[in-house]
Amino acid sequence: MAIVYDEANKYFRLLTKNSEYQIKIDEVGLAIHTYYGKPTYGTEMSYQIIPIDRGFSGNLYELKLNRGRSIDVLPQEFTGCGIGDFRVSSLNVISANGSHSCDLRYKTHVITDGKEPIPGLPYVRPYEDNVSTLVITLEDKLIGLEVELYYSVFEDKDIITRHTRLINKADSVLDVTKASSGMLDLQFGDWDEVHFVGKHTMERQFTRNHLSQDIRVISSKRGMSSHHQNPFVIICDHDAEENYGECYGMMLMYSGNHKFEIEQDQAGATRIVAGINDDNFSWKLLQGESFDTPELIMTYTDGGFETLSHNYHNIIRENVCDRKYMDIKRPVLINNWEATYFDFNADKIIDIAKTASDLGVEMMVLDDGWFGKRDDDNSGLGDWFVNEKKLIGGLKRISDETDKLGMKFGLWFEPEMINEDSELFRKHPDWALRDPDRNPTMSRNQMVIDMSNKAVEDYLFDCISKILASAHISYVKWDFNRSVCNVYSNNLPADRQGETAHRFMLGTYSLLDRLLKAYPDLMIEGCSGGGGRFDAGMLFYCPQIWCSDDTDAIERLDIQEGTSFGYPVSTVGSHVSAVPNHQTGRTTPLNTRGIVAMSGTFGYELDITKLSEDEKSEIKEQIKTFNSYYWLIQKGDYYRLTKAGQNEIYKAWEFAARDKSEALLNIVVKRSQANAKIKNIRLKGLDEASVYRLQGTDQRMTGAALMHGGYALNLSMGDYPAVQLHFIKEV
Ligand code: DGJ
Question: Which CA distances in Å does 182 have to 1, 185, 339?
């Protein structure tokens, strides 16, 4: 069993293959966090808590004479509030008499095999893996609040998931104003924090800061996980590298407002609290009701960023995304967005599909502009019925054509939005999120629809279902093109408006869930102006997410590299687009664009009908190449071979088969130089003693030579040259 309770010493051990987590229930019933690190082989770690009387750090009443035991410095699992732990708290609650205090003590616990779903929220699926769950119940008897702390241990994957359930056992309402998913107190260590920042068309850039005695906040209050701060944080040794150093990962499985608070306290200890952003959040918990927080996915390694990333890649591919996608070959697609924008008709789409199909493309995706009155981005959102003037013969005609070509057909939606200029808004102006008497702030001239309202969810379910049933549609691109403000639901009373943002996410998750249940073979690709909602919450429903609206191959190197810290390439939507690139004006070789896009779900997004015969033949070869590497890329281990955020000359990365039978090395030069240094790249994940042949040559080297010596090459002429080298183990 991966979870052990020692009754005599009142402590829990949560054991994975390479890590151990310890919780001790102390003499007054506080849940103390005593350890998270490499396995201890059986030592109870609370001996590391050495009481020191710290000035201005008060003591719980029972401990008033024991001044070294202040909760202001004790490492804990989850805090109450208002009772003298002055660091960032896990919870804020206001009870009926207006008190802001909550004192949580151990009540009971239960350990079970497996793991239950979290009502209404995405969760890490246990499947038939080796998973067990510990639930510790804390209570504040005075205010009648119970807090259940859930820990599920994925033993073989070195992952521990956490979430929190609040239950009102009082006879009056409790107002919850902060409910975090989990907290990690690290008593010792000199840490850096790594997180992934950005903006539209430049998401998830690797960022690293040394911690000091202050509070850092990584968060979003945009109603979405955001392009700006991804809900994923790494706490690592100050000198941690790809293959060295202790790293703790905390990833929130949530697509709405999130917040990670990282505080280094007076004693040099570090606390990380993660969960729903408490900014403008409140939740009325009525008698007998419960509230579940989103799930937090945690991992620990002493093997540096590489192992940490591998742990996340494995859990996301196999337990966050629907596992069936591990074995379903996803289609190479062509999307018409950058080819036509809004300027298309059925003939044009069929033309693109035919040309693409000849070259081996397997799915035609019709993007924005097929519905309502939608000839630009000012109108039509909400009117989810076909614009028959633009698409004569409707979607059925296109899908009949793609069927004939042996292609799949996919369609764009942006369900959570509404235009002022739409039939839907004219009929239901109260369905937009907005203050009743204030003009809303517009963005892309659209508003956000009130997903917290069940009638809205039902309307969307009906119209999307009708469209899906009207033609042979096997894929949906689910877009979300603005940040959310004017967060006011006309469907909720005044004293519940603080619930709107979270109820919005629950509505979106519910709609996704209903559609996938009604159309089990449908594949949904997430999108939010590119990667504005690239998070584990969306990945529960969508096995892939459009990674960025920046399709420039060179910009994508940094975006995809940053993304790779937490998310596997199987989730990264990536396309070859036209040159000069529409976002940067840069011209890169088709070969380079292909190599970069292959480190993802792969597709094309350009007017393929306008390409030269040479370019078309190159694309045909690219698709063959991608298909031949498909399983290696999707299931192999991904290695960053150049330093994140640092190597400005070139980037190299690799996919190595788990059984070490083959590896694919990718190198892209970002800056060509005269008289350049030879680039020597050390591979990873090979079998030292085996001989590998470089495909297409007679060159043979041992795994050891490639890993410890490296593969040297001179690649420096021209603009952005790139190569892909395939090494195959000889039998
Ligand atoms: C933003 C997406 O990221 C693009 O790919 C495209 O679908 C547009 N929206 C359409 O409006």
Answer: 23, 10, 45
